[in-house]
Amino acid sequence: MPRLALSDDFVADLVSLQRPVQKEVNDAIQMFRSMTVPQLHASKGMHLEKLERARDRRIRTIRITKSYRGVLLAPDDGSELFTLLRVAPHDEAINWACKRAYSVNGATGGLEVRNVEALEQMETYFGAKEDAAPARLFERHSDTTLCDLGIDDQVLRLARVCVTAEDLMVMAPPMMPADQYEVLEFLANGYSAEDVWEQLIASRGQTIRTAGDRPAVTLTEAILNTPDRIVEVTGPGELERILTEDLTRWRIFLHPAQRRFAYHPGFNGAAQVTGGPGTGKTVVALHRVRHLLRTGRDGDRILLTTFTNAMAAALRDSLALLLGESDAHLLGRVDVTTVDSLAARALREARGAAAPRPLSAAAERSAWTRAAAREDLPWNEQFLSQEFRNVVLAQGLRTPEEYLRCVRKGRGTQVGRVQRARLWRVMERFTDDVASRHSATYTQLCDQAARGLAESGPRYRHVVVDEAQDLHPAQWRVLRACVAPQSDDLFLVGDPHQRIYDTRVSLRSLGIHVRGRTSRLRLNYRSTEEILRWSASLLDGQPVGRLGEDDEAEGGRDSLRGYRSQLHGRIPAAHGYPSQDAELGALVDQIRTWTDQDGVKPSEIAVCARFNTLVDAVIARLRREGVPAVAVKDDPGPGTSGVRVATMHAMKGLEFRCVAVVGVTAKALPFAQQVTPAEVDQVQHQCDLLAEHCLLFVACTRARDALAISWNGQRSAMLDPVAG
Ligand SMILES: Nc1ncnc2c1ncn2[C@@H]1O[C@H](COP(=O)(O)OP(=O)(O)OP(=O)(O)O)[C@@H](O)[C@H]1O
User: What's its EC (predicted)?
Assistant: First the structure.
């Protein structure tokens, strides 16, 4: 019986087909799997055909419907593992198949594909302009080094003629084999050969460094070595699952850097994955949960947390999708929730009706005003609230003595002993006041819940945390208390460049140690390279600390170096207008271009603004002009049509084909009210400013294909690096 594998290109084709054609593909595959190899070759129905013009003699086509052909890679070494490479209309399938060649990567042992015809044309083109060339892009690296990194003869010849990174870029996959291209891209970005080997090759399990010493790999082995692009269909249930459920690629194919952590057999403690926007961190978290569910014991409960209720709902849906019908029974062992909801629930369980209720921001401000009323203090409510949140609750201080002794990390003002005593009195008054009203700030709720949970003992065997960059130390204490320190206790994913709330955390000081168990994702699956570059330059020179290392003693910097996308598109547009009316008029035109000319559905477009007032104005204007629009905060389901409109904060974790960021004015970004004045606290001032930069970065990186930025009146200085 032949074995069957499916390539990522095949799955991508299948997703785009109409349902009836999908069904015929399914039928053809079932027929294929029911035959022996000789029957397959003899079958008139399948019409397994060798192509005269094919560059790879193992390539065949099979008949799927009257007009569709499947493209297959057939083994020629006596093995029986066939790979379905594409399914496409007849001529397209034949044309594609004739130009491809499959080979085994010398370093990774994985199967790779190239457009051999296009690469030969490139050789001719570069050959013609060769003699004029100055220094070459890869001249620092010897042929042997490149060969050890998996570069083969044809790619080596092409690498040798590249002068600039752009020369390399014109040969990007699908022209060049993706793994070899990735190696060259890393080298072109200044990584050493050693780094490249560590990050791209050793991570796949290779231990032999030199090409000459590596054992030969058979076609079947090569296919099985390529789980990021090829999946073997191991049973009828599996095929059904792949073909009948939602065919989103992230469910099936993971980048090796994603797979290595998601399916790691067991970490000896907490582990952490970081990476820029759209690098598939959430996807890794979901696969990790699946792995822990499948390999864990029946009673092991798992907590999966994220930042907002809306994101928790989306995570729950995605997890159900990933588990599919076959693993649906495991879902009952997972709680998907925010840390705040978890803390509130723990308090309700412990104290019943006496549990405090969360305090609104306005009620908190009034409570600080009341608490400070009888003192003649040199600090305003904002300072008091920050001191309470960022020192007292962050460090979990309980007594005036502890407060007198503590190091006020992250605060830029000196506060002497006498002043601390006065501050403590005010904070105590605040706490008593809100407690007498049966309420507490969210951070207080977490602080109280963490203490209760620490006493009652761990509730979960594993905790998986998405959007880890925005959690406050009190929230981390809740998580720490939920799970005992042991193997695979905490799995954290986050991006410090997307930190949009005022939180600084030293995970080490909270008893969470990830050293030696960290990984960084660099390939963006969401946005085009043009959107990425543009957005990343918004953060040029900003001092972004590493995830969980904000303790000054640890204090390294995170960077977006090597962060890239294989997708390409238009450079983002940035335009200023004389008035808001003119800006919104241009927005309507932009949306019409996206829908009418580019064929984008309104629900695949988002407009975002710094404030709710502008969000409302945008919705009103769009509706007035006949463009359907809905507010993201009203939680429109996937079936609801209309352009999505949201504040920048609400864009966290979302993605859209096209995004317009409006009202990027000097007044809105940075928003003065959100930034502590430097004279009140210099350190806090810098931290708040950085959060505003990150907010704009988050908004822009939600875009997949197109991004448009606009303002009216004076432009925000944050756009200076990109808008000239
Ligand atoms: N291995 C993969 N193959 C195909 N698509 C992927 C893969 N991994 C992630 N994606 C897609 O990339 C997009 C971004 O993924 P995800 O939301 O997990 O990224 P993220 O790093 O958590 O993003 P952010 O931090 O910006 O919220 C999603 O559309 C996801 O489906």
Answer: 5.6.2.4
Neighbours of 148 (CB within 10 A): 22
Q: Which atom of ligand 1 is nearest to the CA of 466?
A: 22
Whether the CB of 250 sits within 6 Å of ligand 1: yes
Closest listed residue to residue 60, CA positions, set 3, 100, 12: 100
C-alpha atoms less than 13 angstroms from C-alpha of 42 in its C-beta half-sphere: 5
CA of 163 to the centre of ligand 1 (A): 32
Omega cis (within 30) before 174: yes
The Cα–Cα gap between 198 and 518 comes to 14
280 Cβ closer than 6 Å to some ligand 1 atom: yes
Q: Can you name the residues that pair with 232 across neighbouring β-strands?
A: 5
Return the sign of the alpha-carbon dihedral for residues 599, 602, 604, 607: positive
Q: Using CA atoms in the order 606, 604, 566, 710, what is the torsion angle rounded to 10 degrees?
A: -30
What would the pLDDT profile of 587-637 be if each residue is shown by its tens digit?
Answer: 999 999 999 998 999 999 999 999 999 999 999 999 999 999 999 988 888
Q: Which atom of ligand 1 is nearest to the CA of 279?
A: 21
Distance 166 CA to ligand 1 centre (A): 26
Instruction: Record the pTM.
Output: 0.83
Nearest-CA neighbor of 388 among 417, 420, 358? 420
DSSP E strand boundaries for 276-383: 302-306, 334-338, 357-358
- Measured CA to CA, the distance from residue 345 to residue 360 in angstroms comes to 18
Contacts 24+ apart (CB under 8 A), 411-419: 411/386, 411/387, 411/681, 411/683, 411/684, 412/681, 412/682, 412/683, 412/684, 412/685, 413/680, 413/681, 413/682
Does the pLDDT of residue 357 top 80, yes or no?
Answer: yes
Other Cβ atoms less than 10 A from the Cβ of 95: the count is 12
278 lines ligand 1 (CB under 6 A): yes
CA of 479 to the centre of ligand 1 (A): 24
Query: Bridge partners of 335?
Result: 303
Q: How far is CA 345 from CA 90, 310, 337, 436, 448, in A?
A: 58, 18, 11, 20, 12
Pick the closest to residue 669 from 603, 592, 611 (CA basis). Answer: 611
What pLDDT is attached to residue 551? 47
398's torsion region: left (phi>0), alpha (psi -120 to 50) or beta? Answer: alpha
Residue nearest to atom 3 of ligand 1 (CA): 250
> Is 299 annotated in some ligand binding site?
no
CA 274 – CA 494 distance, rounded (Å)? 5
Q: Which residue has the tokens 């238009």?
A: 570
Nearest alpha-carbon partner for 259 in 288, 239, 230: 288
